[in-house]
Amino acid sequence: MRKTLGIIGGMGPLATQVLYKRIIDRTEASCDQEHLDMIILSHASIPDRTAAIRAGKTEELFAMLLKDAKMLEENGAGVIAVPCNTSHYFWQPLQEQMGVPIIHMVRRTVETIREKKPDIQKIGVLATDGTVFTGIYHQECARLGIECVTPGAREQQLVMDIIYKQVKKGLDGSIEDFSAVDAYLKGQGCQAAVLACTELSCFNETHRLSDFYVDALDVLCDEAITLCGGTLRRAYVL
């Protein structure tokens, strides 16, 4: 039985649009009716996740996320996707109050890496300061025996610049800045790296990074299609 997909979007709006397009592109369908039914809530005015977490002021943010999730559920969503890695810091308390599953993008990304590359030992994670601060990727990697590497201070600032000063401002993002981060991760012996911020997924749309990079938004896309009863046109390949 097909389920309607609910998306808590707007974090940011471009990333929400990219997820929507990827779901369409990756669904096996020959007519409109074979695509997923979706409810997309683009809550662009929601507080910045990194700022709230770093300041220890998360009550308002959590309340908004819960309200959004409940709204989607009440309007028929059978599965919920959140195209924002940092927001998955709240996954457990949100899921405990929901009657439908919220896809854990962070967990499924790390599990997918382990499933596709069983011998992998060390991965890099490119994310916001908020995601790095919460340790959500570190926890999922540790659970599966994978070492998790985040950029050094200089390289992390470059990551944040790409996210906040470039992509969120409507720019393509500097491949030169990214190359410095890439060199750092490979110098640390990483065998792969996760694009663990959906603005970096947008960056990937433009720059078409190598398969060294695992795009968490692709994992979320495939999981959403599968859980809603759709058919994948092509599964994500690592």
Automatic annotation (TrEMBL):
Membrane-spanning parts: none
Tell me the SUPFAM superfamilies matching this sequence: Aspartate/glutamate racemase (SSF53681)
Q: Which domain of life is it from?
A: Bacteria
EC number from the UniProt entry: 5.1.1.-
Oxidoreductase is among the record's keywords: no
Molecular function (GO) terms for this protein are: amino-acid racemase activity
Checking PANTHER family in the record gives: ASPARTATE-GLUTAMATE RACEMASE FAMILY, GLUTAMATE RACEMASE
Q: What is this protein called?
A: Amino acid racemase
Species this protein is from:
Candidatus Avimonoglobus intestinipullorum
